[in-house]
Backbone:
């Protein structure tokens, strides 16, 4: 009798492939929730408005809609799970490799918000949302998706 397992056991890392999608959904929801809180609370606490050039650096400064924060957070989470799924499939140590790559992507993601021609408070708020998304997605994918013994 043969059994089909959708998990991958690699040394100490056993990733449950079926849990990756669940982990991604939870990560996207949790990161979106926290980012929406940041979106409303930080500007209110420090008395500024999240206004950025929505159509590129040379465009008119407009208020950042909350749906764009949610969309970017969900897109980042989906991208993270796709990258992690590839590492899970083709590498011996997917968790370790993914954490290093995720840190690299996080550092690269600071470029756009920190180069915007807006106040430092806005740049740091946007960058903090990147950190939140990366931290939650990385934790959920590399910890929660691992199969428990």
Residues:
């Amino acid at each position: 009798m043969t059994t089909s397992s959708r998990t991958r056991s690699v040394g100490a890392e056993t990733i449950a492939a079926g849990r990756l999608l669940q982990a991604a959904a939870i990560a996207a929801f949790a990161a979106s929730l926290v980012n929406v809180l940041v979106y409303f609370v930080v500007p209110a606490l420090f008395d500024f408005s999240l206004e950025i050039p929505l159509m590129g650096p040379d465009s008119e400064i407009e208020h950042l809609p909350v749906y764009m924060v949610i969309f970017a957070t969900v897109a980042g989470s989906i991208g993270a799970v796709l990258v992690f799924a590839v590492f899970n499939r083709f590498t011996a140590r997917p968790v370790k490799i993914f954490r290093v790559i995720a840190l690299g992507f996080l550092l690269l993601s600071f470029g756009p918000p920190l180069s915007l021609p807006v106040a430092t408070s806005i740049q740091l708020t946007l960058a903090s949302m990147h950190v939140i998304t990366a931290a939650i997605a990385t934790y959920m994918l590399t910890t929660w998706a691992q199969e428990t013994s």
User: Anything to note?
Assistant: The mean pLDDT is 89.
